[in-house]
Amino acid sequence: MRKSNREITDLSEIADIVRNTDTIRLGINDEKFPYVVPVSFGFDFINGKFTFFFHGAKDGKKVSLLRKNPFVCLEGDICYRFRRTKLSVTCLYESFIAFGKCCELSGEQAVYGLKSILSHCNYADVNLDEKILPAVSVYKVEIESITAKMRDKIN
After folding, report:
1. Domains defined for the chain, CATH in brackets
2. Distance (Å, whole) CA 53 – CA 135
3. Helix or strand or coil: residue 41?
4. CB–CB of 100/135 below 8 Å?
């Protein structure tokens, strides 16, 4: 990391950033250009390990690319505000970048993933109708590495 004074290494602090992030960007390998798509998500942070969950349609570009290559990059950020500096303008932010392998879930694991997404989106009280499972694909990404940084965190 170029500006190591902004790096966050404490995993529970990184989990707080993830918890406060609304949307993540999913980076998938494509033939010429990377394909990046925003997704709603849920996550687990258990024993120092992150697992992310997201869902989508049963087919489409995202699905076909994930089937070709399941290794992905996830990015999340929180922009608190912009402020003027002596030379320019800067953003006060917290962010993370994670790398992992994605796999499609089924059955109870898919239900768990959807409930995790609902919980993260503040809808944990919604009764999940399992009839939705045939209509959506649910994925998990087990994170192999994660980094985070911030600039002038505002509480």
Report:
1. 4-151 (2.30.110.10)
2. 16
3. coil
4. no
